[in-house]
Amino acid sequence: MFRSLATLILLAPSLALADMPPIEESELQPGGEGTVEPMYNIDVFALPAANLGIIQELDFQFGSGLFRKRWQPLDEGNYRMDGLGPLYNTNSCLFCHIKDGRGYAPDGTSFETSYEVVSMIGKVGVPADGDAYMN
Which Pfam families does the record associate with it (predicted)? Predict the structure, then answer.
């Protein structure tokens, strides 16, 4: 009896998998034509969409450079690329928006800052009327 029970326990997961529906094409490309390869890369959200044209990819790379730039206080000699973030609490977007905003919350112990992160705001979900772009 024990052998039958052990066999059943070992076979149960494979029997459950056999009953699963086949994978749909849309599941293989969750970003549609913009899905990048390899899809499970640790930095997948930092990659440009696969269907960008040359000009759009250059725009993406320029924006990515601005996002990663270490900003400095305004220098009278160069007005084009100086300044700080909107909260003036660190010198790069990437410090607070880890992994392009898809990572974890900053822990305040990074070498980039000497202050401790004491609070954070996050919006989860959408309003009851379903308008995800209300704010």
Answer: DHOR
